[in-house]
What we know:
The chain is an alpha/beta fold and about 300 residues long. It has a single domain (about 1-20, about 35-55, about 65-280), classed as Rossmann fold (3-Layer(aba) Sandwich), CATH 3.40.50. The protein is built from nine helices and eight strands. The chain has helices at about 1-20, 35-55, 75-95, 120-130, 165-175, 195, 225-235, 240-260, 275-280; strands spanning about 65-70, 100-105, 140-145, 145-150, 150, 180-185, 200-205, 265-270. The strands form two sheets. Strands 2-1-3-6-7-8 form a six-stranded mixed sheet, covered by helices on one side. Strands 4-5 form a two-stranded antiparallel sheet. Strand 6, helix 6 (about 195) and strand 7 (about 200-205) form a beta-alpha-beta unit. Helix 3 (about 75-95) packs parallel to helix 7 (about 225-235), helix 4 runs parallel beside helix 5 and helix 7 (about 225-235) packs across helix 8 (about 240-260). The longest helix has 19 residues, at about 240-260. It is globular and about 45 Å long. It starts with a helix and ends in a 13-residue tail after the last helix. Mean pLDDT is about 90; it is low at about 15-30.
Amino acid sequence: MAALLLLVFSHAADAQQQQQRRGQARETPRDGPRIDYEAVMYAQPRLLDEVMASVLPTEKTEPSTYFLGFAGWAEQDVFIREVAQARDVVDERLGTSGRSLLLVNHLSALEEVPLATVTNLEIVLRRLGGIMNPKKDTLILFLTSHGIENLFAVQFPGFPLNHLTPQRLALALDRSDIENRILIISACHSGSFIPALSRPKTLVLTAARADRTSFDCENENDWTFFGNALFNHGLRKTTSFKDAFASAKVLITQWEAKEKFTPSEPQISLGPDIEPVLEQLARLPSIRVAPIARD
């Protein structure tokens, strides 16, 4: 585990070295309030019950859309900002208010939000599968953190957390019985998750090719490049995920070229049977909303 964490930290540092030409990235201070780790872990069942109790049931006649956000890296503020703002965009644009929830690793969220752990993710997916109509409703799952090939980093100093692998995520989704899935992964090398996650009724969008890094995960940022382009720009202009992704790729290419970064090449995997779901979302009333924070 120590060697694996070192590799993740190394990849995160490599991605940030190119970004630091624009100024020294600030680290989240590591000294702060003492954490009662045992109390936090014992609080997880209660916190999960509280967030799940607030989730609205499925509509009886019309399809419903649910959002689950997962911010896996505790030591940089960009990930909690990104997942919270992505939820706000999806709530506003796709009508998931009351049907959206977060799992977050961050000091500021310990008392109110369940941890972003693999176990909590499995529990929430299973319980969402019981609330949703698994055949007509749609899940939007957004994960943001660092990553290496075939691994999405889950980290909070002091907590012995497991990282997330493509196979374990695929198994958790399959066990939930939720059929219609929009899976969005913002992390370096996230394209490596596509083979395991591809299903006929699944759309997978990733921030980078399997062998490439993604960018702009500096601590002070509101968004990564991918989250900014997809949610803050693309989905504020359209409710079509395909169109939002296409426009996001153009923006990311421009931003990376300006900074002389190696292209991340965001990836899309479109299951043949997810098209009707995407078309239904694309028909939602589309009121263009200006992006927030920087372009």
